Amino acid sequence: MNPPSDKPRPGGGPGKPGRKLGPIADSVGSAHRAWLEPLRSGFLASGLTINDLHQQTGWAKSKISELLRGAGLYPRWEITNDLLLELNIPTWPMRRLWASAALEAQKKQEWIDRSVGEPVTVSTSPSVPPIDHRAFVELQYAPYLRYAKVFLKRRGLADRAVAEAFDILWLRWEEALSSADVVRFAWSVLRISVMVRAPHIDGCPSFGTSAFDTFSLRQAQSHEERFAQYEESSAVFKTMSRLPEQQLDVMVLRYLLGMDPSAVADVLGVPIASVRSDERHARHVLEIGLGTDSNPEGNAL
């Protein structure tokens, strides 16, 4: 291994604590941000300073600061792993997220393999998630993936978004368990993972080719019927995209995925009364926006 030239020998004299950690750089991509935000949260919650991490890991303060802000070149796994160990953050899910972000940063697979393959301190973190996390994934995987596919049509993109969400949830599992509702916490993680990848028009998520997949459109017999149904579906989707987040999610799960209110409540982590209220308000907005009292889509996909 060729150690980085800027990694000093441990045991050097203490330095002065650096300035307060700056914000994440604007250039950081969605995959990079997916692992950087939990790492920053772990650092801020630890009470340590960049100088503390410098003394404990031997890495230069400038390199640690750059890594925590997403500035400069994409970080090697060795320094990332060292910080994870010091902050007691599970390394296994982080390694997958780090590798995915490396590809997003235009790093070649050879660079990733070489970086990960370098000798690093053996982690005592489990190589599999906690059993309750695994049970949660088994329960929610199917509806999460169906939701993701409504917005992400490119092959494999929905799968990556869901896998990333569950990896982030693993990293933040203790935080999720201590939150007011673990299901609601998890949905917020999934939603962010999907929406950062979804195309947006005027700040609203675009359904794109979802308009071609509606039940009504598949039942249309003639070209004229299909064209008319496509226009109607496009208008519905455009209006739906402007709904508040939870109302939009309720309408997607209810009308595009055909889930009943109790199932929607179980996926979102909200009371069934909240689902019915959101649906009622959303339908009212759609009726006004479309100038009709018709049921949006009327049928599930």
Q: How does this structure look, described?
A:
The protein is mostly helical and 301 residues long. Helix content is 61%, strand content 1%. The chain contains 15 helices and two strands. It has helices at 30-46, 50-57, 61-69, 77-86, 91-104, 109-117, 131-151, 157-171, 173-177, 182-195, 215-219, 223-240, 245-256, 261-268, 272-290; strands at residues 200-201, 204-205. The protein has a two-stranded antiparallel sheet. Strand 1 (200-201) and strand 2 (204-205) form a beta hairpin. The longest helix has 21 residues, at 131-151.
Secondary-structure topology with pairs:
Layout: H1 30-46, H2 50-57, H3 61-69, H4 77-86, H5 91-104, H6 109-117, H7 131-151, H8 157-171, H9 173-177, H10 182-195, E1 200-201, E2 204-205, H11 215-219, H12 223-240, H13 245-256, H14 261-268, H15 272-290
Antiparallel strand pairs: 1-2
Helix pairs in contact: 1-5, 1-8, 5-8, 7-8, 8-10, 12-15, 13-15, 14-15
